[in-house]
Amino acid sequence: MPEYKSIIDKQAIIKTQNWGVVFCRNKEVKDTVPLHRWFWFCFLEILFGEELLENLIMTSGNSGIDDPNRKSGEPLSLSLHIPSGIFSNFCHNQLVDLLYYKFFEQYKLLEQDDSEQKPYMNEKTGTLELSGFKFRFVKHKLCHIIAFRRVYQTTALILNAAVDLIIWWIWRDLQLTIIVGLALESIRRLFKL
What we know:
Shape: globular
Order of helices and strands: HHHHHEEEEHH
Helix content: 40-55%
Largest sheet: 2 strands, antiparallel
């Protein structure tokens, strides 16, 4: 009979505080993103965050010839980091903002390909001009992807459960509560099209 041996690995665990990072603005972002816009970004991230992460993972495999150490993913404009879909295309410009302010400035999952080139503020339109800028996924941050995905899934579950509890509390109808819960989850999945 084989003798089982327990394995010991004293390496410190990677601890992430993704709840605070996802829902609370850091100092840099506080100065540029108003609170109401941040809440909107959080809502969009709960709907589209998993897809954005999956797309970043897929582009991280191709570093390009200008990154011989393969420390970063493929350099693409922010628009190309967004997977095409019915609802993601509808929210495309807002998802570009989300990628810039949350994934680039807040989480540091993206880095600018040419850090010498700085975006400029278009005074006429009041927009930050990023045309021609490319961003890459930072590969050493791959270990955080699962934690972000867990935050998105858990938040969706908590919101669904909260709405179900409210429906149950108001109407005391189990069938209605189940129907509403299924409808909310169906809507969330529909946004993935």
